[in-house]
Amino acid sequence: MTYDLAAMARRAKPGMRKRSIVLRDIDPPGTLATNLFRAVYNPVIQGWAAGAERIIAAYAATVSEMTTDAPADIRAEIDGAAEQINRLVLLLTPEVRDWALRTEQWFRGKWRGAVLSATGVDLETMIGAGDVRASLETSIEWNVALIKDVSDVTRQKISNAVFDGLRNRTPAREVAKTIRDSVGMSRSRATRIASDQLNKLTSALAEERRREAGIDTWIWRHSRKAHPRADHQARDGKEYTDETAPQDLPGRLPYCGCRSQAVVAFD
């Protein structure tokens, strides 16, 4: 539901003379990203890690005595691992939903606390998960698609290593290293994706909660990451409205950890 937080704050503190109040910045903890990785991305990585060992064993058994059936045998191992993981992905959708709902609940509590401490207005009975359903569903679908992509990319890297190895008669130990490195790179990528998805969901929630409260003004807060976008870093601390804001809002671009900090304006 929509409400006028500025008007409610005036009623809660009738003697207030401030022109505006800056709400507390809400910076999501890394544990929420870790929870997402562990719940839905890591099972896929572990599935490929187990499959990789079977594929490595099949490669080692055939590379020294190459037969016409050898490539098909290894392909069967790769396809079998992919099929198992595809079935797993279907089971992970409820886990994604559970994470999104828990993250929304955490953010709602922080938003309520920020508003209460700054304005004296308690939003407990006014806001709920249903108000931000669109952002939650988008996050869920996005993560399901990314889980599949992590699996598909891992499969392709393993396939490339195997069949390049067969074509070039590469020793089994070298192919094994390449395959294991591919799984390791997928693990690192999945960790970054989980962090990025947390930033995207909380940024969307911040935007929805702000607009729901009738707040048009906000401050850009930079992520302080090691390799920032120069233009995002330059915006740190600057005040924007929905009309003056740049198109690439905080948290929208890939791996952007910037945030918007709401400002309740009274004039």
Topology (SSEs and partners):
Elements: H1 5-12, E1 20-22, H2 30-63, H3 70-119, H4 133-168, H5 172-212, E2 217-221, H6 230-234, E3 239-241, E4 259-265
Antiparallel strand pairs: 1-4, 2-3, 2-4
Walkthrough of the structure:
A four-stranded antiparallel β-sheet has the order 1-4-2-3, covered by helices on one side. The model has no long low-confidence stretch (mean pLDDT 92). Helix content is 65%, strand content 7%. With 267 residues, it is an alpha+beta fold.
Please tell me how large the radius of gyration is: 24 Å
Proportion of residues in extended strands: 5-15%
Largest sheet: 4 strands, antiparallel
List the total number of helices. Answer: 6
Can you give the mean pLDDT? Answer: 92
The share of residues in helices is 55-70%
Overall outline: elongated
* SSE pattern: HEHHHHEHEE
Distance between the termini: 23 Å
- Given as residue ranges, the uncertain stretches (5+ residues, pLDDT < 50) are none
Number of DSSP E strands: 4
Reading side by side through the largest sheet, how are the strands ordered?
1-4-2-3
